[in-house]
Amino acid sequence: MKLNSLWPASGKVRAGLIIVIFFVLLAVFGPMITDYAPRATGNPPLQPPSADHWLGTTQTGQDVFSQFVHGARVSLAVGFIAGVLSQIVSVLVGLVGGYFRGIADEMLYILTAVFLVIPAMPLLIVLTGYLPTRGMISVAIVITITSWAPAARVLRAQTLSLRNRDFVEAARATGESRMRIMFYEVMPNALPVIASGFLFSTIAAILAEAGLSFLGLGSLTTVSWGSMLYFAQNNQALLVGAWWWFVPPGLAIAIIGAGLALINFGIDEYANPRLRTGKSRRKAARPAGRGSAAMSSTAASAAAGAEASSSSSGVSEGSLGGTESTETTDDDASPPQIRGSEVPGDPVISVRDLIVDYPTEDGAVRAVDHVSITLHRGELLGLAGESGSGKSTLTNAITRLLRNPAEVSGGEITYHRSTRTGESTEVDLLNLPAEELRAFRWSELAIVFQSAMNALNPVLRVSAQFDDVLRVHRPGMSAAGRKELAQEMLHKVGIDPERVTAYPHELSGGMKQRVAIAIALVLEPDVIIMDEPTTALDLLVQREVLEQVMQLREEYGFAIIFTTHDLSLLLEISDTIAVMQTGTLVEYGPATDVYSDPRHPYTKTLLSSLANLGARI
Amino acid sequence: MKFLLRKVMLYVFIAWAALTLNFLIPRLMPGDPLVLLMERTEGRLDPGALEAMAEAYGLTDAPLVVQYWDYLSSLVQGDLGLSIGYYPVPVADIVAGAMPWTIGLVGVTTIISFLLGTGLGVILAWRRGKRSDYVLPALTFLNGVPYFWMALILVLIFSVNLGWFPVANAYQPILVPGWNPEFISSVIYHAILPALTIVIGSFAGWVLSMRNMTVTVLGEDYVTMAEAKGLPRRKVLLRYGARNAILPSITGFALSLGAVVGGSMLTEVIFNYPGVGYTLFQAVQNQDFPLMQGLFLVISLAVILANLLADIVYIFLDPRTRAEA
Amino acid sequence: MTTVPTTDAQNGPAAGAGEVILEARDLVKDFRGKRVGLHRQRFRAVDHVSLQLRRGQVTALVGQSGSGKSTVGRLLAQLMPQTSGELLLNGQPITAHRGRAFIRYTSTVQMTLQDPFASLNPVHRISYILARALSIHGHAKGAEEIEEKSLALLRKVNLTPPERYLRRFPHELSGGERQRISFARALAAEPQVLLADEPVSMLDVTIRKEILDLLDQLRTEENLAVLYITHDLGSARAYSEETLVMYRGEVVERGSSADVIDNPQHEYTQRLLAAAPNPRRRLSNPGEEFRG
Amino acid sequence: MRTTRTIRYTAGLAAASLVLAGCGGGDNGAAGDGEVQPLTIHANDGNTHQANFNPFASAFLAGTRGFIYEPLLISTPMQPGEPIPWLAESLEWNDEGTEVTLTLREGVQWNDGEDFDAEDVAFTFNMMIEHPSTNLSALPVESAEATDDHTAVISFSETAFADEAAIGNTVIVPEHIWADLDEPTEFVNEEDPVGTGPFELDQLSDQLYILAKNEDYWDADDIEVQEIHYPALTGETLTTTLAAGDLDWSGGFISNIEDVFINQDPENRHNWYPGGGQITVAMNHEEEIFEDVELREALSAGIDREQISEVAMQGYTPPSHPTGLPLPTYDDAMASEFEELAYEYDPDLANEILDEAGYEEGSDGIRVAPDGTPLSWELAIPSDWPDWVDISQLLEEQLAEIGIAVDPQGISHEAYIEARNNGNFELTMAAIPVGLTPYDLYSQMMSSEYAPDDDSDAVNANFGRFYSDEADEALAQFRNTEDDEEQQEALEELQRIAVEEIPYLGLVQAPNWFNYSTERWEGFPNEDDPYALGAPFQSPDNALTIRELTPAE
């Protein structure tokens, strides 16, 4: 929530602010520097711009520049007043409806829907048509009537999502009153939405005022940009080529609209960091490797809510790594404990001295630091580590799914492809050309993502998500063949094959994870990366899924890299364990050895913590 | 189907609200349309005739409920009263003459700009961080340009200076409307510039919202999974990214359609296009309240209907809402 | 209500040394479910749950997600009305969902929530959060006293030096630190009962112990009755005297923690224990790799 | 892909057809092959036509009166006092002026083949009694009957000499059609309207309607125009169409008419804007302060009408004449003593008058009346009338020079009418229509006929509420005589009152907007031959004009 300084970082917001400030200054001080009264006639008519008349004169010899700056006052004032009024209405409607729910909300929701759907401009025209006087304020009020609804709807949605957030519940538990919760807890978090709504209404109001005046529905005795355009149009300025008369006001409306929209853009990006572009994006980049399992659920809810406040959790991840280390036992000094692997079989993936960096403004953050591991055929490699240890970055590097701006700055990842003759060729994964990478993916290395609810496309049937893979990697297969295979795979993971036509939301969490596993298996890859595949599941379901995985591994013989923060789980199931802490591999060796004889202090701490918490270690 | 039913109920309610609003506005707002009628007839109406006319406009001293009932029952018969400005032409006739033009113009341009805008939005989202991001400020600018000003500029360039397109009418006035190639081509030719205005004025909004939605969706796990599946980029983008991103866009249709209709009304004024926008404008200028209200009602109902259609499309695109049924 | 197997007397463990502060009798909570035809299905989240929270004692409420354990917590905190059943505070039946009665209730019963990242409002500084909690319950007036008491609260939850934390925003703190702030906020009311809803489930393993130790420390120092809601049987065993196991809204097993976990009677508890990761399992059968 | 190609193809086709049409337009002027070109008219703004050929409706399409339905005798302000026989050959008054006997033209037929006779005339007048909304000139009709096929007698409830022109201008509708109507004013009459006129409806679409010559017209030989086209044009498109030379005859305000229209073909393109009423500032004479004629004088002297004419009206229309008579329309009625008179802009004189009358300047530069009322008034005008907005701004500037503050307030048209009609104003602007005779004009300026009564405060003319016994007497004198000289005497008395009492502050004449091109048709009225008002919406003058048109040489 904190702005580092008053001057925003985003170039867009800067540009927008400059535009708005320029026009505000123009409106405030402009009239002082003009030599002519805005409606004073008597100058030579229809003069093009000159030193005397910066923007020329009108048909009746009025000074266009003077009208322009005076018009800026009216347009901005109407925009501002309507913006404020409509935000007041929408805050009341949105907050009250969203917070209290129930019958009041239903009524307000329907009211909002009515004003949302009924087209604003015709309503505006009809309302204005009946207005006896058309002063600035009454026009602004009428514009408010037609423009509050969109913001109210967004605000209601925002309030709905905020009221279920824990801090609201916590505030209630503390004993805060409803009013106080609404206006001190919920509303500040909705500020970006309100600000965005304000800008939106302001743009709408400026446009509406201009449109109304242009139609002759405004007050023509008031000089505004719209009435300038009205007179220009009425006097055939277009036909006599008096561009100086109608270009400036229209352009100004467009530019100020763009200015406000740019600021709005900034707010959107602030609320939803994914939208950032160029510089502001790089700046916002944070070491995702430090993003942790524990964190990701907040991040996910943040993305789902797409609200501003959630970005705070984004910000926090960067700072968190720093402070967190004060709590964890910091044993950087201890050397990594690497034990030889006793796993039989040929290597299938070997990582050598891998380095992954996240460039930030304060220099690169090293998310993975000289990590070397080897995965053998059929091996289950457990990758353990807490939030920010770099384990996800490591697997993402292997799967070539690192997102900008993370980059591999050193080391190599080799895939050992077995050929038919039983020999093995080495594939440099990091430098695999795009087409070969595409072919390599899924057929040789598949992934099971942490949260299957998010990993399955919600709008496609399960069958279609099998099909995608098969069409690309088994182009010769018939549709019937594909369906049969998909059903067979579902059967293998213990799901009724008939469910192949189901949509993801029709399946339970455990079933979705099984489906994800089935999809991962469909091409019988050599390696499956399982990124916290069971974390989101309940204990009993987790156990079932794990059993399923183990069975399938026996059947197919694929190798697994299994990442989790649950060390006790790894100790139980994996052949080899790699423990990571802040980007480095601190302990690596056979699971039984690591369990019975942890050597690195960090591993020891982890194990003792588990014991203390009552786990059966 | 329950979901659909609920939507239909909501829109029926909204339509009812629009009807009622239309009934209430003239009664709640200050002013008396009869004064204008008097003026228009230069005061030669005798009190009896005036009273009869007031009754025809539904402006009686009867209790509001009775007026409301009369209003609804005449609406059911398609009776929107008589226009003041074109007295005694029935409002319904005028509206019926204007509607096809606007529905044609706005309908076609909305579809074009929606397709163009969402397509471009998806492309921009895919190319995020590339040089194409620099288009965004330009689009933001376009999004802020008032329709009527855009129309003026287009008229200035293409009609006044270059003389490529006509500045007015929906077809060559000399032609008799009919389904013949000459007439149809004339209609299309006359619609190009207004359509261009509406497309330019509205597509930027679609681009921006679609880009934002797609960018957000592209960060979802299922997109990453699609990429990990080794699917071609195009497929990842369309089947996984755009397919999901378009859903909120369709919901946002309500917001945008109203704005497009509003903008196109001004466009019609500039191009003297004989649609509802221009007719409404003239009604306002003539203080032709019955016509104003009739048009407002019809426009509202059309937009409400379009929204309902959008919601139905949404149901087809999003299996999750279907399941709620 | 099904019979609840207990390893001890029907009414709680022998260890029930402290007096009962908060008691729930036959709590039932129904939620409105999907509408089917004209009838709206009701979903029973909490099904006749009774429990007693005693001064100076930690009671663990264990269950998987959806078992209704968090709903019980919220019912006890009076954040939502129960469908039926009774709450007794110090032996007196009480209903206080809103208004002053609710505020009075919260000065006795406080609750902390699971997600430390979400339970502190990101727009407020720690000082504001604590100051509000203090002034709502009237335990401090005036800026100086508030600051003083806030610092004391921070010290109580072992955030030292407290001055370092007061001016910060939640997002500048780690998860563990935030959970401590949540405790501090709860303590500001000087409550007798603390309902801790999954206080460590979202924290890293190494931090969990510290937080649970803090909870234990507070229990002794402040003589609190603590309800420890968790899905983790292990930590319930380690940190509570009494454990209740919930399954589908019902308490299926209750008794002293050691008994419940070391010698589970109910089939569900047994399954839960069996499902927990257990490296020892494979040590005991070194020949056999993990199998279903 | 396919769509793009289709569009390009059709666009090309359309462009080609346009070019062809353009070539055709070029040929129009030559009219070489002997075929008569249609006459293209623009009369009313609107981008679509709403079918309406009811001559009693307020929004009938141009041509309904004059071309389809015809009057009995034509009176035009350009030829006052000389009604031109039309459907009636003569009109005779009884001595009291309460009865007229109309002798009708023989051999006239409705365009559906029925004969036109005195029953139709009697029906039309009787309809006015039954349906007052068809009584467009508020004639005091008492009864009407056909005494034989070609004679109709109309009686009035009061002396109606002054209504002679209005009686003559009444258009006659066929009884055999209109008798069946319940509410004649709600009759849209869109299918083959049955009239006696020289034209009948040929075709109607929303952008164009065509009137074709009625070959059985009683005066068919004098009509050379075979077809009249009325394209739907708005203010904006009117300008471009005019510039393109596609209109032969048009009305309506055109900004920059010189550049847009005339200069492109000064030989053939002309405009003629004779006065058709005047635009005034109405002072509310019920307000005590305006009873002071010196204040009125000073106000009048403080207004620079030349500037208003030049700037706000773009020089299209000259300042008002102090008598209020639109010129040259009512040239003949002008008293010789006022012929040379003109308003003079003299702020010094105005200041002098005000100083002497005791209107002293306050500290803020605004004068205060002896009774302490500041001379500061709002000037309410309809906010969407741009020329009036311009005028009001000029007035504000000009009157500030003499210490009078005028604050223009743009209000809705409706609110304006309400305020104006009900007298809720101190100053407002009002137009005084030309009427059919100077009598109409003056009665709308100063007749006590237009006074608030018990029922209502509203008046629909003489908005300034200027009432004077002298004026009422003069108006009565005119009304009660058939004698031209006596009538002229009364008119001169009314002129004197207008000049001396200054009931209204005349600003500029309201022009009768008329632009024409002689490229294809000749014979339009003009300054040299002002036989009728030229605006194409002016009926029955249009019937006079159409008869004079001949194809250009």
UniProtKB/TrEMBL annotation, chain A:
GO terms for cellular component: plasma membrane. InterPro entries: AAA+_ATPase, ABC_Ni/Peptide_Import, ABC_transporter-like_ATP-bd, ABC_transporter-like_CS, MetI-like, MetI-like_sf, Oligopep_ABC_C, OppC_N. GO terms for molecular function: ATP binding; ATP hydrolysis activity. It is a multi-pass membrane protein; Peripheral membrane protein. The chain crosses the membrane at residues 12-33, 74-96, 108-130, 136-155, 186-208, 214-232, 244-267. PANTHER family: ATPASE AAA-TYPE CORE DOMAIN-CONTAINING PROTEIN, OLIGOPEPTIDE TRANSPORT ATP-BINDING PROTEIN APPD. SMART domains: AAA. Residues 305-326 have a biased composition (Low complexity). Belongs to the binding-protein-dependent transport system permease family. Belongs to the ABC transporter superfamily. This is Dipeptide/oligopeptide/nickel ABC transporter permease/ATP-binding protein. The keyword Ribonucleoprotein does not apply. One of its GO terms (biological process) is transmembrane transport. Residues 349-607 form the ABC transporter domain. The keyword Transmembrane helix applies. Keywords: ATP-binding, Cell inner membrane, Cell membrane, Membrane, Nucleotide-binding, Translocase, Transmembrane, Transmembrane helix, Transport. Residues 72-264 form the ABC transmembrane type-1 domain. Residues 305-345 are annotated as: Disordered. It is found in: Cell membrane; Membrane.
TrEMBL record, chain B:
Signal peptide: none annotated. GO terms for biological process: transmembrane transport. GO terms for cellular component: plasma membrane. InterPro entries: BPD_transp_1_N, MetI-like, MetI-like_sf. It holds the Pfam family BPD_transp_1_N. It is a multi-pass membrane protein. Residues 99-310 form the ABC transmembrane type-1 domain. It is found in: Cell membrane. The keyword Isomerase does not apply. Keywords: Cell membrane, Membrane, Transmembrane, Transmembrane helix, Transport. This is ABC transporter permease. It comes from Nesterenkonia sedimenti.
TrEMBL record, chain C:
Coiled coil: none annotated. CDD domains: ABC_NikE_OppD_transporters. Residues 22-273 form the ABC transporter domain. GO terms for biological process: transmembrane transport. The keyword Amino-acid biosynthesis does not apply. One of its GO terms (molecular function) is ATP binding. Gene3D superfamilies: P-loop containing nucleotide triphosphate hydrolases. Keywords: ATP-binding, Nucleotide-binding, Transport. SMART domains: AAA. The keyword Lipid biosynthesis does not apply. Signal peptide: none annotated. It comes from the Bacteria. This is ABC transporter ATP-binding protein.
From TrEMBL, chain D:
InterPro entries: Peptide/Ni-bd, SBP_5, SBP_5_dom. It comes from the Bacteria. GO terms for biological process: peptide transport. Residues 82-446 form the Solute-binding protein family domain. Keywords: Signal. One of its GO terms (cellular component) is ATP-binding cassette (ABC) transporter complex. Residues 1-21 form the signal peptide. GO terms for molecular function: peptide transmembrane transporter activity. PANTHER family: PERIPLASMIC BINDING COMPONENT OF ABC TRANSPORTER. This is ABC transporter substrate-binding protein. The lineage of its organism: Bacteria, Bacillati, Actinomycetota, Actinomycetes, Micrococcales.
